Amino acid sequence: MEAEILELAARLGEEALKRGAVLATAESCTAGGISFAITAVPGSSAWFDRGFVTYTPESKEEMLGVRRDVIATHGVVSEEVARSMAEGAVARSRATIAVSVTGIAGPGGAEPGKPVGTVCFGFARKGGNTVSSVSFTGHFPGDRGEVRDAVVRQALLGLLDTLRSKSSS
After folding, report:
1. pLDDT per position in the chain (169 positions), as tens?
2. Angstrom distance (rounded) from CA 25 to CA 49
3. What's the topology of domain 3-168?
4. What is the bridge-based pairing of β-strands 97-103 and 118-127?
5. In this predicted model, what pLDDT tens digit does every residue of 73-92 receive, in sequence order?
6. In angstroms, rounded to a whole number, what is the distance separating the alpha carbons of residues 148 and 136?
7. Which of 151, 45, 166, 46 is nearest to 99 (CA)?
8. What CA–CA distance (Å, rounded) separates 60 from 76?
9. Where are the domains of the chain?
10. Residue 54's closest CA among 79, 74, 84?
């Protein structure tokens, strides 16, 4: 694992502990890579609840509650699905913040308008009885391993940003 990813995961843990946050992941194209990076940090069980690896559309529906019509309308690589995945992760865990990723790491799988390296991210935050969520799409160059590493890095950075913005809630 890259030293930069380990450093980001350690900073994420410090920030989560400082803010009393508990994290979860919902991963498709990274297949647990974000959770792996997080749990490489000693003591991460104090701030990381669980990771969902949902590689198929059916697993996204069954494990995270992503609606079939959302997948059918937008495709699994979409911000709508990413947002639903993150919301499902906080709803089905003890987490207060979740990240989700769904995308095309390659080498195959490209679709019209969604080339290899297209990845959608979702971030959800639970505050009391409400859940707020955001999503965005990134495009990452490289081979399968480089795309997945870049996605893990971006997910950790996004979680850090989400934690730091938590003080406004």
Report:
1. 689 999 999 999 999 999 999 999 999 999 999 999 999 999 999 999 999 999 999 999 999 999 999 999 999 999 999 999 999 999 999 999 999 999 999 999 998 899 999 999 999 999 888 999 999 999 999 999 999 999 999 999 999 999 998 544 4
2. 9
3. Maf protein (3.90.950)
4. antiparallel
5. 999 999 999 999 999 999 99
6. 16
7. 151
8. 9
9. 3-168
10. 84
Encoded amino acid at 10, one letter: A
Beta bridge partners of 99: 25, 123
Assigned token pair, 25: 């992941």
Supply 18's token pair.
């400082």
Token pair 């799988």: residue: 109
**And the tokens for 111?**
């679709």
Starting at the earlier edge strand, list the strands of the sheet with 23-27: 48-53, 23-27, 97-103, 118-127, 130-139
- The 3-class SS string of the chain reads CCHHHHHHHHHHHHHHHHHCCCEEEEECCCCCHHHHHHHCCCCHHHCEEEEEECCCHHHHHHHHCCCHHHHHHHCCCCHHHHHHHHHHHHHCCCCCEEEEEEECCCCCCCECCECCCEEEEEEEEEECCEEEEEEEEEECCCCHHHHHHHHHHHHHHHHHHHHHHHHHC
